[in-house]
Amino acid sequence: MGQRVTTTPGRDAEPLLDMALAWAEQDPDAETREETTTLVARVRAGDEAARVELTAAFDGRLAFGTAGLRGPLGAGPLRMNRVVVSQTSAGFAEYLLDRAARGETETPPSIVIGYDGRVNSDVFARDTAEIMAGAGIRVFLFPEPGPTPLTAFAVRHLGVSAGVMVTASHNPPRDNGYKVYLGDADAGSQIVPPVDGDIAERIDRIAARPLSELPRSSEYTVLGPEVADAYVADTAAALVAGFPRDAAGAVAAGSESDLRIVYTAMHGVGSDLARRVFTAAGLPSVTVVPEQDRPDGAFPTVAFPNPEEPGALDIAFRVARTVDAELIVAHDPDADRLAIALPDATAAEGYRRLTGNELGLLLGWRAAERERVRAELLGTEAAGALACTIVSSPALRAVAAEYGLDYAETLSGFKWVSRVPGLIFGFEEALGYLTHPAIVRDKDGISASADAIAMVRELAAAGRTVWDLLDDAGERFGHFASTQITLRLDSMAAASALSARIREEPPTAFGEVAVAELQDLLTPGLAEVPADVLRFDLADGARVMIRPSGTEPKLKVYLDTFSAKGTAAERREAAQSALDTLAAALRDTLAALQEPVAS
């Protein structure tokens, strides 16, 4: 006979079940507490699906990194919930107190906490405030849901030691997250290594203690409207100062003309603040998409609340056709990203959205021209840097060279872009733009949208369109064509495994074009920190970048081609033809590798 396993009443032979029950005992949230106990009961009854679900929620811990936390709502250490948020806040508080003890910030340290309109964002923000205050941190909590750029602005405006924004940005509806900024020497930028690892170690140590041992306090300050007022005033002032002037130099170019603009907040928190900025900067009013204008964590009209996703702008297109709009402006739910679309007779919807690279090129060119005018008025040389992430189009390099500006390519993420010395503009192809670094040190869809509206207004006043401006850019800088291939996989681990397989068996050609050089950014010294990115420079001047997503179970492939021969139309056609051929070759290469890894 086998050995008999005995258990004490209420205890299980399986450590995972014991862990889950211990978690439920300390969970302050009735919903996730019941979720846990129900899963345990189902596992005890022999429900294998429940066992898989319990393992996915409890066998490990949601990793804290440079993006903070992000994951699905639910019970367990691998989900976003009140226990995880409280433990994370306690670990971050300990880090800030130690930083103060080293003289790297004020004593006591201080923090501003913002939150968006997602499910439980307000609850997580209050938990963060109470834990921080209980640890002796001076806490400022926003009074209502607001955009991520407002929290990033507040870190610098209030001069605090740190900031937390509770948001999952454009992730699926049942996700939430916890984004961290640092003040002082970090100037309001997101954290970078090794700070993330230091904070993560503290969180792990605290998570081993009962939640009841973490002191809480309601002694924190709830902000009034003054920070939002300051954001509007400072952003509008920076925008207006940079607007091109009319021929007499009296008013902003194009200000006499109006635009029909449709705006969508994508069920997020951007609408009120964005419209205040537009008004303060003297820009046209907008027609909102009514179904998507108020915060709603269920995101009922979109499968993925991300303006990059197919179908996300369908309702905005419909409203735009109704009012004959000349411009569509879309923010993601926390308003740190921006998409614009314009009339296009060749598009089935009647409008085409600019890619992140196209808008990044135009806004970067605009920033370079703004700096040229500023320097000319002062009688100095243009100075500063244009920056983008390594997976964004290299077109910005050509703009920087033309204007005598510095240029930098960083790892993905605005935590790197915002730290480029002398930055005057930065972007990432995933619809992220930083147009006024003196105001905010993170991507800001609100200020970027105001600049985009002004740009379209100026063009309209001259009888021109954005499509004309893109042709101008192609003639001046050469035409850059870009696209992205995204493979959705079963898990983030599967994406990393596929990337590792490509690293072990790197292609020597894509289709008929040979690889001229391969750079593995895991090699120390090739990037700010070693990164899981593979860069292939091809013999014809094209470029391929491959990386697993840091926040979602995806492998992302970025393709760039270039042409500087012939007219703007000929350059566009040549670059696009080369891109189509390269994309087909990449899909063939990945198809041969994907199935064994994804399964």
Automatic annotation (TrEMBL):
<dbReference type="Pfam" id="PF02879">
    <property type="entry name" value="PGM_PMM_II"/>
</dbReference>
<dbReference type="InterPro" id="IPR016066">
    <property type="entry name" value="A-D-PHexomutase_CS"/>
</dbReference>
<keyword id="KW-0479">Metal-binding</keyword>
<dbReference type="InterPro" id="IPR005843">
    <property type="entry name" value="A-D-PHexomutase_C"/>
</dbReference>
<feature type="domain" description="Alpha-D-phosphohexomutase alpha/beta/alpha">
    <location>
        <begin position="253"/>
        <end position="341"/>
    </location>
</feature>
<dbReference type="InterPro" id="IPR005846">
    <property type="entry name" value="A-D-PHexomutase_a/b/a-III"/>
</dbReference>
<comment type="similarity">
    <text>Belongs to the phosphohexose mutase family.</text>
</comment>
<feature type="domain" description="Alpha-D-phosphohexomutase alpha/beta/alpha">
    <location>
        <begin position="357"/>
        <end position="472"/>
    </location>
</feature>
<dbReference type="InterPro" id="IPR016055">
    <property type="entry name" value="A-D-PHexomutase_a/b/a-I/II/III"/>
</dbReference>
<dbReference type="InterPro" id="IPR005844">
    <property type="entry name" value="A-D-PHexomutase_a/b/a-I"/>
</dbReference>
<keyword id="KW-0413">Isomerase</keyword>
<dbReference type="InterPro" id="IPR005845">
    <property type="entry name" value="A-D-PHexomutase_a/b/a-II"/>
</dbReference>
<dbReference type="Pfam" id="PF02880">
    <property type="entry name" value="PGM_PMM_III"/>
</dbReference>
<protein>
    <submittedName>
        <fullName>Phospho-sugar mutase</fullName>
    </submittedName>
</protein>
<dbReference type="Pfam" id="PF02878">
    <property type="entry name" value="PGM_PMM_I"/>
</dbReference>
<dbReference type="InterPro" id="IPR005841">
    <property type="entry name" value="Alpha-D-phosphohexomutase_SF"/>
</dbReference>
<keyword id="KW-0597">Phosphoprotein</keyword>
<feature type="domain" description="Alpha-D-phosphohexomutase alpha/beta/alpha">
    <location>
        <begin position="62"/>
        <end position="207"/>
    </location>
</feature>
<keyword id="KW-0460">Magnesium</keyword>
<dbReference type="InterPro" id="IPR036900">
    <property type="entry name" value="A-D-PHexomutase_C_sf"/>
</dbReference>
<dbReference type="Pfam" id="PF00408">
    <property type="entry name" value="PGM_PMM_IV"/>
</dbReference>
<feature type="domain" description="Alpha-D-phosphohexomutase C-terminal">
    <location>
        <begin position="524"/>
        <end position="573"/>
    </location>
</feature>
